[in-house]
Amino acid sequence: MNFDKIIVIGSGVSGLTTALTLQLLGYETVIYTDKEAGQISDKNAHPEFASLFPAASVIPHSFYSDQLKELFRTSQSFFYELRKRFFSGLSIHRHFEIFEFEQDEPEYRNWMLDFHPVMELSPQEIPRRSCSQNLYGWAFNCIFADWPRYFPALTACYKQSGGHINRRTVRTEDLPTLPADILVNCSGTGSLELFDDPLDEQLVMRGHLLHKPGAPLIIGAGGNIISYNYTPKASVYSDPSGEACDVYCYPREDGWMLGGSRETGYLSSPTTEFSKKNAESYQIGGLAIPSAIIDINKDILETTYHQSLRPSDELYPFIGYRYVRNKEEGLRLDHETMYGKTVYHNYGHGGAGATLSWGCALDLASRITSKNKPRLQELLLEEFEHIL
């Protein structure tokens, strides 16, 4: 076993998963972070901490990289293996992606289990608004990580395996003296404060979410838990650029996660300006939430699933960021030498941080260990047998 020390910067899902992977493969790891998700009560005070907000389905949404297929399929495979081992919070959802206009099937259509276009589905099972007529899209089965259960279990596994979390702020001037020859940068939007990034513009997407606690799981005719993304025509709901925008509902054991919106901004100092659209909104918890998130979801939930949603319900609003970085090649998964250390970068996952967490962790582990990913996955699963 190799007991070289590695410091991972960042305690979000990418940092935690990468640190756990390396720890189980025999490295001594420590996470340096200025905040931990489990110790934050006001999520809206930290919209940049993406791991506070996932629903989270294992689907490659809002992610840009020519490595998408390999990383996603590796990650998807590992999630299924963890579910076989009864890892906390992992289930299977029957997920629908529905449009009120014709839409090309996605690149990932061949990667999802039991994928079927709308034309092959029973009309009764398709999410729809009361006025819906022609609908397009598809459905598939996917892994769902119930975040209030999955993320704490991931943290517990890391600590049980011998990993440590060091609460401290890392600054650029600290990097030369950090006590490890290998650093893994999983600090997300914080990366720009620590390291030079080769891209001039850094794209971030802001989105509104609502949590309805106590709402039941939505069960389909086949006994499957149902979730959906639904995109009406742009004349009904659009983003600030005028493109049709989707709403969604992801049922969890603690209620529904509802969204969404997509406001574009670029990371800058000291503030980030986001594109906005003057749209109708509801004031919920002191935040302006686009009314379409409630109104369209309300119509779908009542029409298709006979479930109730009202603005007057107990709803908790959130606003979080997706760090897209760049729509041509957003993911930064590479390494460089600084101050005599090797720095591995793992950030820019867009809306797919949870989805790609195991794929990216195994990719970095392969680079560090010089072993192929299938062999590393075998070794990792063997180690999980001891802690699950």
Automatic annotation (TrEMBL):
Alphabetized PANTHER family for the sequence:
D-AMINO ACID OXIDASE (PTHR11530), D-ASPARTATE OXIDASE (PTHR11530:SF11)
Occurrences of domain FAD dependent oxidoreductase (ranges): 5-366
Provide the species name.
Answer: Fodinibius roseus
Entry cofactors: FAD
Q: Which family does it belong to?
A: Belongs to the DAMOX/DASOX family.
> Where does the signal peptide begin and end?
none
**One biological process GO term for this chain?**
D-amino acid catabolic process
Question: Reaction catalysed by this chain?
Answer: a D-alpha-amino acid + O2 + H2O = a 2-oxocarboxylate + H2O2 + NH4(+)
Molecular function in Gene Ontology? D-amino-acid oxidase activity; FAD binding
Name of the molecule in the record: D-amino-acid oxidase
Q: What is its EC number?
A: 1.4.3.3
- Name the domain of life this protein comes from: Bacteria
Cellular component per GO? cytoplasm
Instruction: Tell me the keywords, alphabetical order.
Output: FAD, Flavoprotein, Oxidoreductase
